[in-house]
Structures are given as structure tokens and as C-alpha cells.
Amino acid sequence: MRGTPAPVDPLSVRRRFASRLAGEGIEIGPGHVPFPVLPGVTVRFVDRWTPADNEALFPELGGSPGFPSPHYVANLDTERLSGFGDGTQDFVIASHILEHLANPLALLVDIHRVLRSKGVLILLLPDRHSTFDRERDPTPLTHVVAEYRSDVREVDDAHIIDQLVGAHRANGGTFDPGSLTPEQLELHRHRSVHAHVWDIHEFTEVLEFASKELDVDWEVLDEMLPGQEGTYGEEFGWVLARS
Predict the structure, then answer these.
(1) What range defines the domain where residue 104 resides?
(2) pLDDT higher for 12 or 65?
(3) Which residues pair with residue 43 across a beta bridge?
């Protein structure tokens, strides 16, 4: 008789991605579960909040193993990676980060800047069709380009309201934006809602624009497809080398 199939490790693609990393680099916004890296790889965390701040903002994510202490505290919307010099990093890990930012293109440009030649970017994003964003419209390329050209540095109220309305709709409910107090808006801004949403094809357009118009060129080393075995199923991404 055949036995029960072994469960698939949802981190197996992440581990495969991690095998591309060597040397010293940074993980941006590691959250409460940093990206797995191999022994001998040095990774330093960049986050906006201390562990105590994160635990207060995200009590639902508390408990073991807890939030790691950042090596560098930086607001990615206002400072981006200004604390790092050009070509100083062997790799950057940005797992489920760009969708939270006021200006995702600006951070993508800054990541490219801090990487050494052939330095590696691990880039993961949520698939909007498979998450609480499934009732939201995709963020148009023209929208993120306009934010980049205007040097936007704060997620505005409209993005927060769009995320809240969409999340309630995805759960079969409704949400009245007029019920939000200024304090609640600020809390959601600090909790870094999904300001932007894409699927893999829509975000590929963002990468293509960055390559053609901003000289942010990448070589694709590996790819994670939505629903792929060995992932959480609600995400997509790439291993990219700075070219």
C-alpha cells in the first residue's frame, strides 16, 4: 500500500532562492519570519520599527520566534536605502515589501544602486488574485510612474481606504470610509497596508519600465510562479542579478 505523501515544504522555493546568496547583504523589512539563508551568509535587517514597536502594531503576529532587532532603522518611504553606499551589497532580500510602499519604483531603483555588479535581489510579492486584495483593481503602471516622478514619500489616505474597502469586500462585507478617525488612519499607515497590488504579469510591466526608462536592468536567475508547489501559494517573485 502506498503511504501518505509527505507534506510539501512551503519554504522549499525560498530555500532554492537562498542558495543563490553569498557574501554580505541586507533584508528589507524581515517581519516576524526572516527569509531563510544558508550558513556562512551574512544578512543584516533593515526595518522601520523596533521589535517592541512591531509587537504593538501587529499583536496578531506576536509570540515565538518574535520580531528580530533591526541592524539599521530606516523609514523606507522617506529614507529608502540612503544609509547604504553605491555597490556595497552582495544581495538584497525584499520579500513582500514593495506593495506596502508609497513609491515602489523609487525603492527598486535604490536597491539596484546599492547592489554590486552581479549582486542578487530576491524579490517576492503577493498575488492580488489570491489574497484579501482579490476584489481590488490592479495598480496601473502609470500610477507608480507618476508617484516616482513626483517623489512621493508617504502612503496617502486614498491608498489606505482602498485597501480597507477591498479587504472588507473580499470577506463579503462593506466598509464606510467616513467612519475612520484620523487616529485609525494613522494606525493603518503605520501598519503599512498594501498600498499597491499586482499579479505577476502586471508587475512584470513595472520591471520592464524600470529597465527601459530608468536603466535598472536585471538578469533573471530564477522565478516563483503563483500557486507553485513549495511556496505559500499566494505569491510570486524572482531571483534577479544586477546587470
Answers:
(1) 12-128+197-242
(2) 12
(3) 25
Rounded to two decimals, the pTM is 0.95
Q: Does position 1 have pLDDT exceeding 80, yes or no?
A: no
CATH number of residue 26's parent domain: 3.40.50.150
Provide the number of structural domains found in the chain: 1
Nearest-angstrom CA–CA distance, 110 and 104: 10
Count CB neighbours of 24 within 10 A: 13
- The band of 4, judged by pLDDT with boundaries at 50, 70 and 90, is low
- Contact assessment for residue 93 and residue 25, using Cβ atoms and an 8 Å cutoff: yes
Computed over every residue of the chain, the mean pLDDT equals: 95
SS3 87: coil
Q: Is residue 109 part of a domain?
A: yes
The answer to whether residue 168 sits within a structural domain is no
Give me the percent of the chain exceeding a pLDDT of 70.
96
Per the domain annotation, does 7 fall within a domain? no
Q: How many angstroms separate the CA atoms of 200 and 88, rounded?
A: 29
In a domain, 148, yes or no: no
Report CA Rg, the chain.
18
